């Protein structure tokens, strides 16, 4: 059996083994270019079938900005958990700083979520996140999280 942690990509099965999120709150489909504890790129395929489009601007569906930031945080959590051994820890979102939403994200878009560690001290980690669609910056934020017991 292949050691998934040696791969540079985390598919949905590994993502679900690393973070506790499940439908409807699991917002990333794949994580690429993982440098454990340092950086990663999450991928979210935006589909009209998503639950939030029923009420977020019906007739002109737009992915809520707060869910883009949550997807950044989930991507960062995968990068952090790839660096942690054992299965008794989880990553808990603590804060959002400097969030900016630049362009709407709509069904059919492929959202790329690049997160890079700014710093870590003990169990607290801070990541800078940038979300792009077709290479265009659509959102950015810094997210802070803490590693704790499940």
Using brief descriptors, characterize the structure shown.
Thiol Ester Dehydrase, Chain A; 2 helices; 150 residues
Describe the protein.
The chain is α+β, with helices and mostly antiparallel strands and 150 residues long. It has one domain (4-149): Thiol Ester Dehydrase, Chain A. Helices cover 16% and strands 41% of the residues. The chain is built from 2 helices and 6 strands, in the order αββαββββ. Strands 1-2-4-5-6-3 form a 6-stranded antiparallel β-sheet, with helices on one face. The longest helix is centred in the middle third of the chain and has 17 residues, at 65-81. It is globular and about 45 Å long.
Per the CATH scheme, the topology name is: Thiol Ester Dehydrase, Chain A
Helix content: 10-25%
CATH class division: Alpha Beta
- Show unreliable segments: none
Q: Kindly state the mean pLDDT as a whole number?
A: 94
Q: What would CATH call the architecture?
A: Roll
Radius of gyration: 15 Å
Quick overview:
With 150 residues, the protein is α+β, with helices and mostly antiparallel strands. It contains 2 helices and 6 strands; from the N terminus they run αββαββββ. The two termini are 27 Å apart.
Furnish the topology, listing elements before pairings.
Elements (H helix, E strand, L loop, with lengths): L11 H7 L11 E6 L3 E7 L19 H17 L7 E13 L8 E12 L2 E10 L2 E14 L1
Antiparallel strand pairs: 1-2, 2-4, 3-6, 4-5, 5-6
């Amino acid at each position: 059996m292949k050691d998934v942690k040696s791969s540079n990509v985390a598919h949905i099965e590994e993502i679900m083994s690393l973070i506790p999120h499940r439908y409807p709150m699991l917002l990333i489909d794949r994580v690429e270019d993982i440098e454990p504890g340092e950086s990663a790129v999450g991928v979210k395929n935006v589909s009209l079938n998503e639950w939030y489009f029923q009420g977020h601007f019906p007739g002109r569906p737009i992915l809520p900005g707060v869910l883009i930031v949550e997807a950044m945080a989930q991507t960062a959590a995968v990068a952090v958990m790839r660096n942690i051994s054992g299965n008794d820890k989880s990553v808990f979102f603590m804060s959002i700083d400097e969030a900016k939403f630049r362009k709407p994200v709509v069904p059919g878009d492929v959202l790329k979520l690049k997160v890079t560690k700014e710093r870590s001290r003990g169990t607290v980690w801070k990541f800078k996140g940038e979300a792009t669609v077709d290479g265009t910056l659509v959102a950015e934020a810094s997210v802070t999280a803490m590693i704790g017991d499940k």
